[in-house]
Amino acid sequence: MPHPLEPIDLSNRESMSIEISRKLLDYLLSGRVQPGQRLPPERRLAEALGVGRSVVREALKSLTLLGLLEVRLGDGTYVKRTDAEILPQSIEWGLVLAARHVLDLIEARRHLEEIVAGLAAERRDEGAVADLRRLLADMERAAADAERFAALESAFHLRLADAAGNEVVYGIMVTIRSLLQVWNARVVQATGAARPLLAEHARILEAIERGDAAAAREAMAAHMEQVTSRVAETLTASEPVQAESAGATLG
Length: 251
Known about the structure:
Layout: H1 16-28, H2 42-49, H3 53-65, E1 69-72, E2 76-79, H4 99-123, H5 126-141, H6 146-163, H7 167-191, H8 194-210, H9 213-237
Antiparallel strand pairs: 1-2
Helix pairs in contact: 1-3, 2-3, 4-6, 4-7, 4-8, 4-9, 5-6, 5-8, 6-7, 7-9, 8-9
């Protein structure tokens, strides 16, 4: 049966799951599928792309977290949106990440954030402290808006990285935050974590204000442990359930 998806050449690839995510993303944005339309089951997608079902499942999970797909338990995966406006520019250079890559980034960020917190406490100045206080207040006012809250939370961490006074570390943190940014609002919304996050950031800021590097690292470690748990919870909850209905087609 003719369909718009073609097998992927998996030779010389940067990542199978990222390549498949991009292929599916192109398919969703091609105009061939409309909001509310059910996707073919995993089996059919895997056959069309010439890959295994587990890889297709990872790609669908990433697109679900991006808000393009909606999983209906026991029924299948449906197209939620097909407009490109919700996709950040960084998708073009590989933001569509499989679950294991997101967790790898979180793990890397976890250790770096502890270093950043300690350095920021040692090297803080009144300007940095004032900026962090303002950002925390803005986060509190935006607690009901997951996307704005996530953007402010990112700004808080980047200001902290700037206060650490190490340009190399700051550059690495900017890259990691950019890769993870599209996931942040999803996690906040899915887990209802705005209030706990406020308390965690307040403890970090208190240690920074005191100039207590050990306490700042400890507060950041506790925060990142919770972040890891929330991301894992969101990833698990978004596992696509593909209906293997006989009538499904590829477009």
